[in-house]
From TrEMBL:
This is Arginase. Binds 2 manganese ions per subunit. Its EC number is 3.5.3.1. It catalyses: L-arginine + H2O = urea + L-ornithine.
Amino acid sequence: MNGKLINGTDEAHHKFIAQPKTVSILGVAFSGGQAKGGVENGPQTLAEFGLHQQLRDLDWNVTVDARCQDLTHLQPLSDPDIGKLKKPRYVSAVCEYLANVVEEHAKRGELVLTIGGDHSLAMGTLGGTTRAHPDLCVIWVDAHADINTPLTTDSGNLHGCPLAFLLGLEGTDLPEFSWLSPCLTPDRLVYIGLRDVDQGEKRILKQLGIKAFSMTEVDRYGIGQVVEMALDHVNPNRDRPIHLSYDVDGLDPSVAPATGTPVRGGLTFREGHYICERLHETGLLCAMDVMEVNPALAHGDIHQLTQTVAVGCSLVRSALGETLL
Ligand SMILES: NC(=[NH2+])NCCC[C@H](N)C(=O)O
Ligand SMILES: [Mn+2]
Ligand SMILES: [Mn+2]
């Protein structure tokens, strides 16, 4: 199917990744898109668990870009709410910086792996990858739709809003976010795993005709068919680069407990990994985000912590070519 098997590594031909295949790892210690502390330590915890070496063991050339490790200097002295939005200038500044770093790596033909941090960072990752790959499509794995606009958000947390900004929806045209021009279209976005979508978000999804496979569809069709249908929708000719934005709360809390907004009834361990395995097989993956791992929310339970961190690492390995045989 995809060439020869070396040490269990399926050598897919990467269509948008230059040889030797290189992954740039950007750990972004940032929690400003939501209220719970600790999610800024996600990147370091995955690194300590051995993520970088695990990817070298899969025959990737690994570049670690430390520029986003500490972005606290970007926090403005004063950052009053804009409408309901919390920390808008800080989130914007961090994402603007991240977008430039991501763009640089993506334009070199590297697979850009961003470890969060909260999901507001997707404005930075997708802001950057879409500059390098203007026709890319997005597969968004999440319990949540993260498509609230400044007008529909209830919490005011920007990790619930990144897609509204990327799509340029009503109310996102704020001077504080002027660096981010709409770079995504509704037909190039598909969700898997949704189960906690706000009323206003449901209306947006309907209005824009955005394809979403909630847990109901995962139950009905099985994850295998869901991923094919998702690909058929956003990538019918299998010729578009794929950006996988993975919120670990897409997984069931029994699989990934250490996260800020867990919702029961999520993807199983295998369903979660299957998505990554299948996307690797396409040879089209050009970027991946692993977001919302919050070590502090393991509440000192070492099992909950290692479980969540280990699953974050194994999702990446699956997306980068680890196979079971
Ligand atoms: N990336 C996340 N975990 N997002 C959760 C968002 C929850 C809720 N919809 C909100 O807008 O606040
Ligand atoms: Mn979520
Ligand atoms: Mn999310």
